[in-house]
């Protein structure tokens, strides 16, 4: 490794492609580049077989059947298809259920999908979370009734890393006769997932969050009892009619290989990453008195730290003073926004403190040396940013 390379600690934004994933994809660009839907000839059939093998590997990761996996361009498309598709199909069938229940800390694409449906006559119920970022199950139970069509709750929050009680939420939705969707982009490969155990009807995945390629994802769609969706766009009717368009065989193969590796090595990764997270936190706590972890510490995904630095200081100033460490202030999907994180605001964190908060994501390829260097660099960045802020 290059001695002066940046320390990458932004694994919630994206993960590097595992070399084994890259090796699995390469032949499908260079040697067999056929359209996997061109099954009239040998190369097309070979590409189709590779796609179906990948589909089976994705299904294995979440305890599903291969035929329940719909391939998409990523979790944003999967979330849109799950939420809008379920709602619009219900209307087509004459259902009177109109309520869609979610949390205020969900990913932007979930919140915006639900807000889009409000213009179509649906009733959004966007519930607050506790100071620890977790859903209030009693409040959720009160909101989910015989008017509820869908409950959508993220498995692992992409900013604060908290793990929701999916089994309890899934049971609650099932009892009310509502569908249960979970955005599991940040959960897959980091915590165990089983669609039967959590009673999920719909579950979204993304390749680039599990050391696979960007531009590919999947949506689990339950077959028994059968979940029906209206497609988002028209076309050739691929993917059981849910998602038309030519499948990118190399990317699908990459997602399949990433899922295969995650199923085998995920728990080993989790143990190592959790240990490195704790070492990094101890290093920062020793150097930065008053630093605070946001979100539940107990119900937390391995590798995540969401840290508020004592002020007066700004997170952007810390990052500028520590350019050798790649971290973020929150979701990459919202990084262009100038306002502080809406997730942190939902936890009741004041604006000034939200602006002094960094998200850290440790991953499969983070080394012990990276952790030690990052703790020192971020603490020094905080001191420099604090001195600059105090002098203004």
Automatic annotation (TrEMBL):
Keywords: 2Fe-2S, Aminotransferase, Iron, Iron-sulfur, Metal-binding, Pyridoxal phosphate, Transferase. GO terms for cellular component: cytosol. Residues 7-373 form the Aminotransferase class V domain. It is an enzyme of class 2 (transferase). It catalyses: (sulfur carrier)-H + L-cysteine = (sulfur carrier)-SH + L-alanine. One of its GO terms (biological process) is iron-sulfur cluster assembly. Its EC number is 2.8.1.7. Its cofactor is pyridoxal 5'-phosphate. Gene3D superfamilies: Aspartate Aminotransferase, domain 1, Type I PLP-dependent aspartate aminotransferase-like (Major domain). GO terms for molecular function: 2 iron, 2 sulfur cluster binding; cysteine desulfurase activity; metal ion binding; transaminase activity. It holds the Pfam family Aminotran_5. Catalyzes the removal of elemental sulfur atoms from cysteine to produce alanine. Seems to participate in the biosynthesis of the nitrogenase metalloclusters by providing the inorganic sulfur required for the Fe-S core formation. PANTHER family: CYSTEINE DESULFURASE (PTHR11601:SF34), CYSTEINE DESULFURYLASE FAMILY MEMBER (PTHR11601). Belongs to the class-V pyridoxal-phosphate-dependent aminotransferase family. NifS/IscS subfamily. This is Cysteine desulfurase. It comes from Dankookia rubra.
């Amino acid at each position: 490794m290059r001695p002066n390379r940046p320390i990458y600690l932004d694994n919630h934004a994206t993960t590097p492609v595992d070399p084994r994933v890259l090796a699995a994809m390469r032949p499908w660009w260079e040697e067999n580049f056929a359209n996997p839907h061109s099954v009239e000839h040998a190369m097309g059939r070979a590409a189709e077989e590779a796609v179906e093998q990948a589909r089976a590997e994705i299904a294995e990761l979440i305890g599903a059947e291969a035929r329940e996996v719909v391939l998409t361009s990523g979790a944003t498309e999967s979330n849109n298809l799950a939420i809008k598709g379920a709602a619009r199909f219900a209307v087509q069938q004459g259902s009177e259920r109109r309520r869609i229940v979610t949390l205020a800390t969900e990913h932007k694409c979930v919140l915006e999908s639900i807000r889009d449906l409000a213009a179509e006559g649906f009733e959004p119920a966007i519930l607050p979370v506790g100071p620890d970022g977790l859903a209030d199950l009693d409040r959720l139970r009160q909101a989910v009734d015989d008017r509820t069509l869908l409950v959508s709750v993220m498995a692992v929050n992409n900013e604060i890393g908290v793990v929701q009680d999916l089994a309890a939420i899934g049971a609650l939705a099932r009892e009310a006769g509502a569908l249960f969707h979970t955005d599991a982009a940040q959960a897959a490969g980091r915590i165990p997932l089983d669609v039967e155990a959590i009673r999920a009807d719909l579950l979204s995945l993304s390749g680039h969050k599990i050391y696979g390629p960007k531009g590919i994802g999947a949506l689990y769609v339950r077959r028994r009892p059968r979940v029906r969706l209206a497609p988002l766009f028209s076309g050739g009717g691929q993917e059981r009619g849910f998602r038309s368009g030519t499948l990118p065989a190399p990317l699908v193969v990459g997602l399949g290989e990433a899922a295969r590796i995650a199923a085998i090595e995920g728990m080993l990764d989790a143990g190592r990453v959790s240990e490195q997270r704790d070492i990094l936190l101890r290093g920062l706590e020793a150097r930065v008195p008053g630093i605070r972890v946001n979100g539940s510490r107990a119900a937390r995904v391995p590798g995540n730290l969401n840290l508020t630095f004592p002020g007066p200081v700004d997170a952007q100033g810390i990052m500028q003073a520590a350019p050798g460490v790649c971290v973020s202030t929150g979701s990459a999907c919202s990084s262009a926004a100038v306002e502080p994180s809406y997730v942190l605001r939902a936890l009741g964190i004041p604006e000034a403190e939200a602006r002094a908060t960094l998200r850290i994501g440790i991953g499969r390829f983070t080394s012990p040396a990276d952790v030690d260097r990052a703790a020192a660099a971020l603490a020094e960045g905080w001191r420099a940013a604090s001195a600059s802020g105090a002098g203004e």
